[in-house]
Amino acid sequence: xxxxxxxxxxxxxxxxxxxxxxxxxxxxxxxxxxxxxxxxxxxxxxxxxxxxxxxxxxxxxxxxxxxxxxxxxxxxxxxxxxxxxxxxxxxxxxxxxxxxxxxxxxxxxxxxxxxxxxxxxxxxxxxxxxx
Length: 131
Hints:
This protein has a single domain (5-129), classed as Nuclear Transport Factor 2, Chain: A (Roll), CATH 3.10.450.
């Protein structure tokens, strides 16, 4: 299993400003889709929802194909979406039991970090993240 890695809070405090309802809805839908794929065991779909750098880092750190490596991370069951903060092309989606970070790509929102937990005074620690 890969070690937990730190991810900064996107270099800013996400406050929802600059994000339209459409972008918030898109980020929320992408996060929910990723979570559902993981929970259903559709790990190929979960990998397709990852940002390219995140997928590459996962495969490199696990020394396995993404769909095998992501299973080893034992991501938490996120539950329902609580809040969505969007700033520009980046978003933080806080679920009941997980936090995901996403970026907007030409083909839609992609997960750049998952299995994230906040640490007091420090960046989030994430089980899956890109470089």
